[in-house]
Amino acid sequence: MSETYSDIVLDHAQNPRNQGILEDANARGYNMNPVCGDVLALTMRIEGGRIVETRAQTEGCTASVATSSILSEMVTGLTLDEAAALTHEDIADAVGGLPASKLHSASLVIAALRRAIESYQKTPA
């Protein structure tokens, strides 16, 4: 089975945005796909209920690098409610679609996002 990626996926995989760890993050989410081994550490800075900065450190396939990159762009500027409402379908659509065998990468980043939001909400003010 051949995997065909959109130009958006290829661009984000070759030139990932917002990569690394945000040192002054107040929200952190980590997720690993136990089947393929892809890993995402998502760090965000949230101020006034809005995500103001996001970084993603990804180890994995082309699709996982691309979806974590696009997620980092998509959530910056959103409120926590807006970010929490995002789905893996939203991520797949944002990258111009994914092969069926790579849809797990969109789920990986959404799970990390939800964990980051939960970590922020559990932190005492």
Explain the overall architecture:
The chain is an alpha+beta fold and 125 residues long. Helices cover 43% and strands 20% of the residues. The chain has 5 helices and 3 strands. It has helices at 7-14, 62-75, 80-84, 88-94, 103-122; strands at 27-32, 39-47, 50-59. A 3-stranded antiparallel sheet has the order 1-2-3. Strand 1 and strand 2 form a beta hairpin. Helix 1 (7-14) crosses helix 2, helix 2 packs across helix 5 (103-122) and helix 4 (88-94) packs across helix 5 (103-122). The longest helix is centred in the last third of the chain and has 20 residues, at 103-122. It is globular and about 45 Å long. The N and C termini lie far apart (50 Å). The mean pLDDT is 94.
Q: What is the topological layout?
A:
Elements: H1 7-14, E1 27-32, E2 39-47, E3 50-59, H2 62-75, H3 80-84, H4 88-94, H5 103-122
Antiparallel strand pairs: 1-2, 2-3
Shape estimate: globular
**Spatial order of the strands in the main sheet?**
1-2-3
Low-confidence segments, given as residue ranges, are none
User: How does the helix and strand content classify structurally?
Assistant: alpha+beta
Number of helices: 5
- The whole-angstrom Rg is 14 Å
Largest sheet geometry: 3 strands, antiparallel
Features:
alpha+beta; 3-stranded antiparallel β-sheet
In short:
By secondary structure, the chain is of the alpha+beta class. 43% of the residues lie in helices and 20% in strands.
